Amino acid sequence: MTDTFSQFSVLSLYSAMGLYAVAFILFTLDLSGLASAKARLARIGLSITWLGFALQIVATVLRGIAASRVPWANMYEFAMTGTLMIMSVFLIVNLKWDIRYLGAFITGLVLLLLGISATRYYVEVVPLPPALQSYWLVIHVFVATLATGFFALGFALSLAQLLQERRERATTDKQASRWAWLSRLPNSVTLENFAYRLIIVGFVLWTFTLIAGAVWAEKAWGRYWGWDVKEVWTFIIWTIYAGYLHARSTRGWRGSRSATLAMIGFGAVIFNFTVVNIFFKGLHAYSGLS
Amino acid sequence: MSPQSETVTNPRLSPVGWLRWFWRQLTSMRTALLLLLLLAIAAIPGSLVPQRSSDPNGVTQYFADNKDLAPVLDKLQLFDVYSSAWFSAIYLLLFVSLIGCVVPRVAYHWNALRSAPPRTPSNFSRLPASESFDTNTDPAISIDRARALLRRQGYRIARYDSKTRLTLSAERGYARETGNLVFHSALVGVLVAVGLGGGAGFAGQRVIYEGQAFANTLLAYDSFNPGRFFSPSELTPYTVRLDSFTTVYEEKNPNAIGQPTDYTAKVTVQLKDQAPEAKVIKVNEPLRYGNTDIYLLGNGYAPQVTVRNPAGEVIFTDTIPFLPQDKNLTSVGVVKLPDGLSDQLGLVGFFYPTVSKGHSGAFFSMYPDLIDPVLTFNVWKGDLGLNEGVPRSVYSLDTSKMTKLTGQKTDLASLELKPGDTVDLPEGLGTVTFDGVKRFVSLDIHNDPAQGWVLFFALLALGSLLFSLFIPRRRVWIAVTGSKVEVGALARGDDPTLDARVAELVTALRTELGT
Ligand code: HEM
């Protein structure tokens, strides 16, 4: 039974990835302005993304059923649930504000992360070791992945903001035409404010993750904070984003500098999730790889 | 507040002037930002180099692997990053800056909370958001209704009228700044509680096997780390006995055969002069008892061994915890026999809970549970080095003054025993009996009196952060001049919804005034 469920989960996931790939191409074409029926490409891309998203939910739920627990207990599952959260935040925010222009980035990122983890870090369903048997696994890890979703959008918007600033600074026609593909995006100040609003949500969730992690560490390892590598990186990420928030109210730092910090922050999130999980040794050795 | 202008107009500063200049620099937003980023960067090396606090064996290994580099890194305190002088300097400066920043803001905010909102500007078009409309309601009634409306929306209101113009000045969202100040203060609280907690408590480790009890006294611990202000008299007098320790191993899932899925330690605890209580300790469920927290952190096998001299008299009998070496619990332990035989003997033991033989003929354990247990010994004869006053680990044997009698590179095979077996020691020295095997657990016992405070301040920070980030702070002005009603607004801090709010206010006002 377990096997059947996890096989269907894998099947669903690969189908979702296929759809994301198609959506990625459509979004990219739309951005590049190569295709004539621009608006429609993005709209089709979005529908396909929704479809892929539905399949990814199926994949994740089946994996959870196969394992009889939450599907976020090893590297492969973190990637599956984490990218699902990135997608959710993107699609849900998009219901309220049109951010289809981030579609290429988000589908591309999710595809990359899923592709790497499904091919290199796939592991069969195994039971939880005693240290992970805790409701804190449910809360702490889930909120962390959710925060990642917000930070990812914050990164994309900050990147767009930096590019947009270039376009706005362009003085010659030649320069302006190079950045023409950005003309349908909001102006840099709007992008910046938007990034900020998403990042503060991410920051609150990350603060919670940090505290919940400490509470759990106290129960599982007998101390709430021990500068384990994963704890160190969680702290670093938190500090970078605190820096970002300060930069927003520091003269001379608002704008491109604070946007750069937001991007570095997300870089650290990804680093924490990939390099730290796989190559660093510490108590958080739950990638499921050996 | 710009420090630059200060230095420009006062090129030659007095010492006090310099101090003030330094203080302003330190408490400026830019410094806070730089220190935060510096702190993030300074934390990185501690994740690249093993730390004494979290991975002492890793540090030893690092020294062995990098003979030249390690001492240099050690000089730079890179094995103790988080207690290093430079890391401490950064966060202490940051917190001094924070306090210097927050205190004046508290005073300022306190005043703002008690004073009326500022005067109404004469020209609303300069405000970031404004609208106006006409009404035929009487100005005095209009302004009263506007006031009632704003009051309902939680604004603090002051009235500033001129002859022809009736105006309201209103402000809301003071909780944003309050939240911000509480947040920063709570961070100081976290730091202080962490600092005090580390000094007041203790952390100790103790290994006990099934049936064994230990009393919570300094001497009973295998290792003990007291905080700076800890005194041994604070140890609550109680005993802990391990009644049983059970593990559950996965047996069905072919991808995880032998993976532990549950550890349960059943213990009996007893406070001095009180009735014993039966309790359970599990990995994620520490036992909170007698002012301490008792954690189940490790476990393994402890073979029971009896040694007799050639005359058949028992010279040694004990249960010895063996250290697990791999996930199938191949375990290593040492029996030291200083007295009772013609020579001092040391036995280096390997325990295999489920034994199997590899191609090379060497034993290994293929399953962590006790299915086919085997104990082997290599026997060493000579000087155990126990009389030199140097503390010796119970888990290792110093063989520098000993000769090996059995095992690899000797003529004799290692001793090999199944439970209940008795075999002869070489050279007719006596016999060894493997009486049986018990489980042991390694317990961590902690006391951190400030832990609850750390959590309290952390949650306070989280809660106030919500206020600080999500409560919009705005000023709103309403002016009625004849039939014209103007509404203007100004956000303090980030508030991208200001225009929409003004529009909403105008709509509400029009309904209120019937226009
Ligand atoms: C441990 C060091 C610090 C941390 C972790 C920290 C964290 C934060 C965070 C997360 C925020 C954004 C949330 C909010 O608006 O309340 C913030 C805002 C702020 N911080 Fe800090 N802070 C620190 C030190 C300082 C220092 C030293 C100063 C003074 C120079 C300062 C001044 C401010 C100000 C003025 C704001 C409000 C910015 C705004 O209105 O957007 N902080 N801080």
Descriptive overview:
- The complex is a heterodimer of chains A (290) and B (515).
- Chain A is mainly α and 290 residues long.
- Chain A has a domain at 129-279.
- Helices cover 76% and strands 0% of the residues of chain A.
- The relative contact order of chain A is 0.11.
- With 515 residues, chain B is an alpha+beta fold.
- Chain B contains 11 helices and 24 strands.
- In chain B, helix 3 (29-43) runs antiparallel to helix 7.
- At the A-B interface, helix 7 and helix 8 of A face helix 3, strand 8, strand 11 and helix 10 of B.
- The structure holds protoporphyrin IX containing FE.
- Protoporphyrin IX containing FE sits between chains B (27, 29, 32, 36, 94, 97-98, 101, 180, 183-184, 187, 465, 468-469, 493) and A (242, 245-246, 248-249).
- Protoporphyrin IX containing FE (HEM) sits between chains B (27, 29, 32, 36, 94, 97-98, 101, 180, 183-184, 187, 465, 468-469, 493) and A (242, 245-246, 248-249).
